[in-house]
Structures are given as C-alpha cells and as structure tokens.
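Hi X.,

You mentioned you wanted examples for the new student's onboarding notes, showing what a folding record looks like when two proteins sit in one file. Here is a clean example. The first protein comes first, with its sequence line followed by its structure tokens.
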Amino acid sequence: MQAHALYNSDFARMPADEQWVEKAFELQKLYWGDNSATDLEAQKTLTNKLKIKLGSIRDKYRKEIQHAERLVAQFDGKHANSTTQTEYHKLTMKVSLGCPEDMRNFARLVLEERVLKTKPACAFETVAIGSIAYGEATPYSDLEYLFLIKNRAKKTVRYFEILAITSYFLIGNLGETKLSYMAIEELHGWFDDKSKNGFKIDGLAKGQRALEISQQGMA
C-alpha cells in the first residue's frame, strides 16, 4: 500500500510521466497474482471514469454553494426577503441531503467495480460508516466502510482482505491520497507533502500494518 501510494504520488506530481501509473499497476498485479481481471489500459479508463464522475459531483455542489452565498449576500441585516429566505432554506436542504447521497453512490461505484476474477467467497454486505453513514459526506470526505460476511473461514476472510486492498488501489489511483497519510518512515523529516486532501481511504497509522487496516471492521 505504501509503495502504491508513492507511485501515485509521483504521478500526481509528474502527470506526463506514465511510468508511475505502470509501476502502480504492476504492483497491483503482483498483489493479485493470477486473480486480475483487468489490464493497464482498462484500469486507465476506469480511473478516468471515476475522476470525471467525482469531478462532476464537485462541480455540481460548488455551483450550489456559490448560489447559496449569493442569496446570503441579499440578506438585509436581521431581515431577508421571504422569497430569498425560502429559496436559501430549500437550497441548503437540497445540498445537505443530495451531496451525501451522491457520495454514497460514488463509493458504491468504486466498491462494486469487478477487477478480480474470483467471485465473492460468501454472501456479504458492504456497509458505509463515518460521514457517509451519518449523512454528512462532502465531495472531499474520506471513505470508511466495513464488510459484513456470512462465513469467517480463513479462506473467506482472505478474499475480503484482498477486496479491501483492491478498493484502496482503485481510490489510490485517483491521486488524492496525501502521501503523509501512509506513514512511510523513510520520508519522515525531509518530504514536504503539499498535496491537498481529496477522496481517499484513511491512511496507515504509525506502526500499523496494511493487513490490520484491511481486517478492520470485518464481522
């Protein structure tokens, strides 16, 4: 996960240098073994599709917020035109309900991508937690979720570990995960991470293994 984040971080800084995309994909293949159902070009297409979709959500709500700001500017001190006030209330309600729903659908789009050959090892549900579950997600919120699985056999749990790491790969490929989140000790003290927060899965806490992250929340 750390190497994958490093490659994607390099590509985010040097988008003309495709070698970093190739390296990230080769690392994914190394992790998947013969379980990969995609290739590099298909992954580029998928990543671009997800970026476009996320960008459209951000543009949509950026325009809504700007409209709300224009309405606020029309308020006259303690008083406001009743029509303006009603429009403002309707707009803020629309944003507060619509944005979390759009982000939940985007998360579903990521998590339901089938890039593995093997089918789910047992019946399961993917459950959102955190801001999406609270109905508070924004287009820059991180993604938190858990798998509810029917069978906790060792082989079954391993399948969902792979699925969890795969979802990280797909989100990491968006290039919005701050490298500092990944606790790469070799970069500590000299690497200046100026990238902004974006759509991501929470990174590794200090001293935490990737496997422990992938197991978190399994029931």
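Then the second protein repeats the pattern, sequence line and then tokens:
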Amino acid sequence: MLLLVGGKTLLAQPSGLEKRPNIILIMADDLGYAELGSYGQEILQTPNLDAMAEEGIRFTDFYAGVSICKPSRESLMTGMHTGNTFVKGNFLSQSEGDFATPFDLIGRNTIAEYVKDAGYRTAMTGKWGLGGAGSGSGPNSRGFDYSLAYLSQMNAHNYFPPFLWENEKMIHLEENRLPEEVNDNMEGAQRDNAGPSLETQRTYSHHLFADKALELIEKSGSDEPFFLYLPFTLPHGRFEIPDDSPWTEMQWSQTQKNIAAMISLLDRDVGRIMELLKEKGIDNNTVLLFTSDNGPTATANRFFDSNGPLRGIKGDLYEGGIRVPLIVWWPGVLEPGVSTHVAAAWDLLPTIAEIAGVEYPADEIDGISFLPLLLGNEQPKHEFLYWELYTYNYRWGNEENTRPRNWLEHRAVRYGKWKAVMPNIFTEQNAVMELYDLDNDIGETTDVSALHPKIVQKIEAFMISNYNTNPYFPLRP
C-alpha cells in the first residue's frame, strides 16, 4: 500500500508500528570491532554501549562501506558499495581539503533526502566529509535541515579547530587560535606526549557536537519525527582530548590514555542520548543505531587488541579493516538478541527509508533493508558483498614523483562463508586472489584458494561485473 503525503509517495507504515519513529544514527570514527565490551574488549570500559547491546540487537557480521572514511561515508549515505560509489578512496582537491561527491552528476540521493521526503526533520553533527560549502554536496545541500560539522575530513583531524561549519556557514572558534609556536610544539611525537594541559581552555569539537545533538533531541516535539545523523569523530587520531579521565593514573603513554578516554567519552555521550530519550518518554518511539566507519588504527590495535581475532586494521580489506560493530536499540519493538545476519553500511539507507516509510529505488542501489529482521520477519540476504579501495598519492605533483595520483590497491568480496581478498593490485605485478573460510578461520590465516577454484572463479566474475570506473578513479593508471 502507498500513501501520498505532501506530494511524495510514501510506503504504508510497516506492520506492527503505530507511527513513524524517530531515527538516530551514530557513527564512530576508526572504532575497532572489539573496542566495545559487548564485542570482547577486556581493557576499555563501555557500559552504556554494552547496555545498548544487551537491550537491543548486536550484529556480529556487519561491515563498513570500506576501510577509510570518505568512501565509507559515501557508501553509507547513498546505499552503494564502493564498486558503484563515485569516490573510491581519499582524494585531495583545492576545495577545503576534500574532493566533493558529485551527487547531482551521479543522480543519487542521501538517506537524509529520502527521510525528509517522508516528513522527517533532519539534522547532523560531526564529520561530514562529502563536500564543502557551496559545492552542492554539503549536508544542507543534501537533505539536512540543520548541520554543525567539519565539512572537510582533513580538518577533522584537529579536535580544537579554529572554525567549524553551521548550516554550511563558517563559524570561528577564536579560543582555538593558538600562537603559532604552540601549534608547532604540539606536532608529531611532542603532541603525543604533551598531555591535555594546554587543551583544557580551548573548545573541544566533540563536546559541541554531542551537546548540540542533545539540544536537538530536547527541543523535538511529538508532532514531527526526526532523523539525527551523528558521525562523531571519536576516537580518530590525533588522539586529542582535554581530560584523560578515568584513565589518568594508568601507567600508559599519554597517547594510550587519550585513546581510552576518547572511547569512554563516546560511550558516555551515547549514554546521555539514551537517558534523554527515556526522560522525554520517546525511547519506545526512537530507533538508535550505532556503528563505525572502518576498523581501528595500528596505534590503538597494538595496545587494546581493538580487533580481537580479526586480521588487519584501518586501510585493509581483511576483516579487521571493514568488520565493525552494529547495535540497534528500539525499546518495546525489538526482541533483544544477537544476529549473525551478514550486512553492510550500504544496507542502512534502505533500512532507514523503510523505517521512515518512504519509497526508494531498491533496484538502483546495492543495499538490502534489514528491517524485516528487526521486526522478526523473514530477512532477504545478499549473495555477495563487495569492496574496493584506492590509494591516494600524497606526493602527487612533485617533480621527482612518477606515480599516478591514485590507484586501485585492494579488492574484496564476502560470499556466504567465503571471504576473498585481492591485495596489492598496483604494487605487485602478479597480484592473486586469496580465499578464506570465515566459518573456520575468522582470522584469515590460511589461504584456501587452491582448494576451491570454482569459488574463486565465481567471485572473480562478480568482481569484474561490479567495477565501474570514472576519471578520478581509473582501473589502471
């Protein structure tokens, strides 16, 4: 059944739901699969996220769009895997440090545009990373009524930025404009060991993002549902934080304390959101989703075992680079439990669209809604999941550098229990596909490609059929 609301075609409300719920999507930055207690973490403490997992559905086999931030965000926002996204790797330009996703050129809508069509008020706070002000690819240009954000992923490395963007207009944070000599002294290894003392008088961007999110929820009414997208920057490097508690007394390096404190702060603010939803009495009519944009950094993984049994880190297409947490919390609607359903970031667009009740072009995207699973119904499944990752040449343009601007470096496929990885495509002339049986080898330690040539052949055919080139990301330099 279809409904017509404000000239837009909407789906009938899913069976069992009295009205369209509020939707909050939180995406951490570089949070590893095993950095939450509910996913096996033994050092760090995440009581609020663990409670969220206990009261909701915890997915064991959920994947990011890819293993670095910009293409992963485009995948999530558009419902496309990286064979079909326009941006397939980080890519610098002269526009505020980033290459804007050309939404108009590729004719794709974002999650926010779909739910706005369903009558949702839309807002985001955090790291956008898909296009700057005036590009036509900023958040307010792509469906958000309100935004407080880093537009550039490069600027988001600084947790005490001299400016942010509110509704795509620059706002200056004068207290963060430190003398040049202090900035110089805080670079590199010196920054890692400096501690938080010089940072306590400045404005920490995450505090602004979290407080604004809480303000938006507090001001929300019952007459109009809201969609709130929170791509928080924690715990991405530089690993800056004004207060390293509750880890201050640990005999760790300052970097280790800061990473732990950033994850504790992230957990605290998820808890604040959950508590506010309960106080307002809207928790039973709010879907809260929590995930990460890719796997952890090497720095975090070495000390906190951030990926548990998984191989690889951020930048890899082994499981550790792309398998991430997904927790869905929806009190009174979901039956709490653990799901082994295999899903990916590009499934979030159709899932959220169906929750909102808005029609979307299911035959034009790669995602499959997992709302049926959430409501206890029969769930369609992917036959394949696909990733590809380009490496950007940060020395491109230097006279002595002869390499191209970027190149295809890794490809991967999940096919049932099978995981295929083709690494080092550019750097090795005879790169070959590796095959792993995840049911028996979740750590991807034993390549069994020689034992299963038909599986390899089928996956190779799928890879070939799912690659789409564009001038910025060519198959061959």
